[in-house]
Amino acid sequence: TTGTGTHLLETINNSDANIDDIGTYDDFHTIDWLREMSRNRLRHRQILYRKKESFFRTLKGLHDAWSGWLVVLLVGLAAVQTHILLKICIPYKCSPPGTCAGLIDIVTKWLTDVKLGTCSGKFWLNQESCCWNSHTAEPSGTGCSEWKTWATIFGVENSNTGLTYGVNYLLYIVSALIFASLAALLVKMFAPYACGSGIPEVKTILSGFIIRGYLGKWTLLIKSITAPLAVASNLSLGKEGPLVHIASCCGNIFAHLFPKYGKNEAKKREVLSAAAAAGVSVAFGAPVGGVLFSLEEVSYYFPMKTLWRSFFCALTAAFILRSINPFGNSHLVMFYVTYNKPWFLFELVPFALIGALGGLYGAAFIHANLAWCKFRKNSKLGNYPILEVVVVTFITAAASYPNPYTRIDASMMIAELVKECGPVMQNNLCDYTASVVNATFSVVKDPPVTPIGSGLRTALWQLALALLFKGIITVFTFGIKVMPLKACAVLISPFHVFPIPSYFENVPTGLFIPSMGVGAIMGRLIGVGVEQLVYNYPDCALWKTSCHAGHSCVTPGLYAMVGAAATLGGVTRMTVSLVVIMFELTGGLQYIVPLMAAAMFSKWVGDAFGNEGIYDGHIRLNGYPFLDNKEEFTHTTLATDVMRPRRGDQPLTVIEQEGMTVGDLEHLVRTTKYNGFPVITSHESQQLIGYLYRRDLILALENAHHNNEHVLSNSLVYFTLHAPTPSLGGANDPVPLRLFNIVDLSPITVTDHTPMEIVVEIFSKLGIKTSTVVKRSLKLLGIITKKDVLRHIAQLNKQDPDSILFN
Amino acid sequence: TTGTGTHLLETINNSDANIDDIGTYDDFHTIDWLREMSRNRLRHRQILYRKKESFFRTLKGLHDAWSGWLVVLLVGLAAVQTHILLKICIPYKCSPPGTCAGLIDIVTKWLTDVKLGTCSGKFWLNQESCCWNSHTAEPSGTGCSEWKTWATIFGVENSNTGLTYGVNYLLYIVSALIFASLAALLVKMFAPYACGSGIPEVKTILSGFIIRGYLGKWTLLIKSITAPLAVASNLSLGKEGPLVHIASCCGNIFAHLFPKYGKNEAKKREVLSAAAAAGVSVAFGAPVGGVLFSLEEVSYYFPMKTLWRSFFCALTAAFILRSINPFGNSHLVMFYVTYNKPWFLFELVPFALIGALGGLYGAAFIHANLAWCKFRKNSKLGNYPILEVVVVTFITAAASYPNPYTRIDASMMIAELVKECGPVMQNNLCDYTASVVNATFSVVKDPPVTPIGSGLRTALWQLALALLFKGIITVFTFGIKVMPLKACAVLISPFHVFPIPSYFENVPTGLFIPSMGVGAIMGRLIGVGVEQLVYNYPDCALWKTSCHAGHSCVTPGLYAMVGAAATLGGVTRMTVSLVVIMFELTGGLQYIVPLMAAAMFSKWVGDAFGNEGIYDGHIRLNGYPFLDNKEEFTHTTLATDVMRPRRGDQPLTVIEQEGMTVGDLEHLVRTTKYNGFPVITSHESQQLIGYLYRRDLILALENAHHNNEHVLSNSLVYFTLHAPTPSLGGANDPVPLRLFNIVDLSPITVTDHTPMEIVVEIFSKLGIKTSTVVKRSLKLLGIITKKDVLRHIAQLNKQDPDSILFN
């Protein structure tokens, strides 16, 4: 019977499992923050205690103190690049010194361009690099003789315009399909967790949930490879969200280098919070915005210490990014713009309108996307994930190519849209009729307003179509689903031994860029509208004083930026972090007020149609245990309405302090699935002693069997401070087992009459997993006030406790 | 005996005291956040419930929902100006359109200048305005013929240089003394709470402490008047810290306009957090930095909702400030600088050095200042506060005048020091020997490095002396003390009826500008040193590659900025908010890395010599009940070690559920000073029922006496759900009183074996005031897990509870 303990541990095959593992968690379980923080303090005390023992111990203490900074430094460095070590410094576009791009950025650019053509003789160069040193380059950078479209390569150019177009079109679609299917297959085969945006899951993990492998090295590797593929396939998705996931993977991997962080789930999440900040910092070149994003949107417990380290991490990442300079300008940011003209108070009206429209779009998007995901989940569609990817990619590519604004990368489109029309701008968006006069504007900073030219009219039509198309296709793209559970688990068996829930998507999809794209188009359209309105009615009282006659005072580019903020806000319901990120993108404090106005209206309008952002929606859809600490619990139920057992249920499975045998406990573990068991004095008195976690019990029993062969099935187990001394009888007699030390003696308890609003507060603020409910018939012992606590702290810190005067 | 209840209520003379007052707090007491939030939810539920009753109710509900935004908007508007309504738009300096300065800024400038001289014929103009339209103005803006020093006015100019100097010197000192004593007297007489920086107290109030009148209208008025006086008196202090206090006063006053905020201490603190953010936003023109300052340094509970509203508030304030434009440049900020030159990696070494020195200074300052304040508190010095102000002002003024860098306002000095030396700069700080060649530099952006000129040498000496002087005098200035308790209370009796504790200082003193000044001097000195080092050893490997031969690559102005950040960080131990504020001051993302480096080293070095910032030090010195949620409790004590009663103490004062009379309770209230009493079943069983707050008990008894004359001293009081029906006996028979509804039935309880680290966590995270301690012999009833909570929430929100899959 000695062996019965071992087969309890199907999940833990490591026979070295020792007491250190007490306090770890099973997969798909929630951690107990209070307990983890206690464990960390215990560890810290031990280090302090042993510090004076030897020089080595002192060093170890120092290392421990430093490791917090070291790990975020490493994460910051790594977050810039998933492969900072593999960083390739391709010697193209080397005129600006030190222009080396990171792997993801370079590959994305190349793959995006390869859909359109190739560089003759130098297939590894993207269009920009190909034309960099060319003397035939067109001034606007749209192409050069070295850069050939596929039609030219296949020799059909010049023979027939229709045929040329057709070949280019076909190859565009084919390459998009290849990239998308490759990405989907890679994800499917090697790392199903690499799919999707990752932010809902990262958010859930940060709130204290365990998903083993979700932030692992395979996920990191595959996501880094497939993210560029997915973006290049022209699907309506971005790599900014996935960058947060990738950065979190880096954080998780580096955390395991330091036992302080790797072995404590609460401390590990501090690193992950910093990593998420670094991810956004890298994605947008916005370190402050990244920290606020992590604080507001992703993180759960965010102590000030973490804030400071996250900031360091985000800044390191931004700084390295700046040194690498993948965007090719001297600024950190993705679409750096400076506007020459200020904005005027009357413009707050269109900005608010844009904000409201962004909020409406966000609400509609969230509802449509969630409905589509739910339909996919519950219908046969979910069984053909690769087919779905192929179909969506085909539709996207086929519909994108004819429209120049959807043909190019979404982030390039946004960069185009947020630009101001300067005197030298020569694209359709800036085609006003008076363009002949424009030649003289090189010195005038403030060109007069003119009516729309034919180029701009075309552009507006194309933009309107692009808006419609992007707005719709994104709904179907965000959350493309992967095959059902079992096929998946079989396929990935060499790498993962755990079951994968069935609702992971399979293309790495980010939502930032697509929703910003929709908003930028909308904003630009409205901006041109307002501009023409001001032109046509120059005497309107609203703007008469601000706009000097005949001079443009409306910047459509700024409207595009505001629109991008509005839709992003509507979809994600970010607030401060959104404004700060956009502010860091524009680089000017003076545009923060328009952005704020748009973000506020977007949030208000969006919230009117449903309180949750897209990430919270997906968290709920996936059934993750996420207790939102931003939402207030407003109902009047009591703890007794919520607690188990309900009336008529089986009585609670409990452990008695004395009298149970090893066999009883093993039976208990085998037959129940509870995460833990209350320990009581006896079934008669039902007095609560403490709480015992299932996993701790399993490990302790396993350990006892392993260390002492006299622990038999009929050994008595004592959960008391003093177990009877083992009788020195026969050698085969069962030895009693004392397991008092694994019982949590101070579980959080509430009374049955406690309002649930307070219980929710306790759960979310303290981050506990379980609370025992007791009857309001406690023997009162004493009382602790805040003053007592403060005096106690003062006393322990060798300060005068009487200096605490008030309570 | 009916009247015995009334004289219990010496503090509450309002006979209309009704049940609404249940739940309010006494002065110098701590609030219970959990309870306040519950009260707010109850109020919110009532509004929702009654919303459909009538149109008026609907409007009231809408008003309630909007009031959160409205109040922060009002605070934001008001924070710019304590007197936005009294804002005077002085028509001076009107060439830049709309240049109207706020009262405080204008008065400060005028008072500062009036120490040096006056404008002939227009005494109400300050130097800048006086010379604005003058044709005789000197190009550097140092003076004009209309602006006359006091010596000229008194006719001693030109006769004797020594005499001129003497008269100016004397009048400088005299005016400084007048301003300082006036400020001190005003504060002493009308609003003793207007003294000091206010940040430690605001921080304490935000953590849940009640100091009535601290944020009142008198404090606001007097502080707004005396802050300019104190700054103008040339004491080593700034008005930036006090602006936080002033803004908080605005927040408090506006909160009272909305019952949602005015009548709920927890909700009120949300407004105060936003107000503190607006204060910093106004002080530095840094809205994002202001929010982070509020989040990191001042606030205690900072839910995301508050973050967003604080941001709105801070932004409103910054926007209004920009419209008023008191700094006279088009930027929001105090010392806006843009540097032409980038910084180089090798410079991180001097930046780190500056950071370390700043941390050292901060630690030394904190220790010295706290020691001096403690000495003042415990010696006779504390009895002569006005004398102390006069002496310190005299010493400061006498020592300041001879040195041009201390003679001027500290913020002007900082603005001077952080400037880059451009081709047209013509002051001592930029006097390099090759200045003759400078004429040709108007097109060269990058002047060559040259050795120090005689002007710069003088400037360096003066700066070194200024550094020494400022560093020392600030220690004695921050925290100048007011007269002892009783005199104070008598003096201010017409306005305040409550006792004032004895440790309030009496000149409004801010610490930001003085410590930044010290740092800016230090930074500039080191910057010039590094610059000359690079000049003298151009071939050193460290900078050879970065600095092209003969060209300056070191910007001493940037070093001054970094130095300011370092000392401010060392003194206050701010982290993220410091970096963001300084980043907003410089306006360039690229200098954020040097600032970060300095802030990090400053904090590390500072923390090595003591973990607390100056504000925490003063909080501790004053004995405020502030439970720092940033610090971890690392000891191993148990709740039983902390709770009252200790072994050998009197037993706990408790209330029995049944059997006590009104007289007993009145006796209890009269003879004890406890904030509340546990309610137990009986002295025999000692089973805990709930907790009853003293103030609630007093109000309930008062109320009962008031409403029913049959409630007599010998009326029995029942704290049970069902009281016996009153016997319909004689008309004068005592009526039993049922007070079950005022008992808190779900007090937070911990067991006697709960580690104190968990108790501390519970107190700081939940913000409770009292926890009852019970013996680990609870009758177990059931259990609640996080999953149960989530399912419960899902169910109440009409969602599928089974969608919560994991625990």
From TrEMBL, chains A, B:
Pfam families: CBS (PF00571), Voltage_CLC (PF00654). It comes from the Eukaryota. The keyword Nuclease does not apply. It is a multi-pass membrane protein. One of its GO terms (molecular function) is voltage-gated chloride channel activity. Its main location: membrane. Residues 643-709, 742-803 form the CBS domain. It is found in: Endosome membrane; Membrane. GO terms for cellular component: early endosome; endosome membrane; Golgi apparatus; plasma membrane; synaptic vesicle. Keywords: CBS domain, Chloride, Ion transport, Membrane, Transmembrane, Transmembrane helix, Transport. The chain crosses the membrane at residues 66-86, 169-191, 271-295, 307-324, 344-372, 384-402, 459-480. Belongs to the chloride channel (TC 2.A.49) family. This is Chloride channel protein.
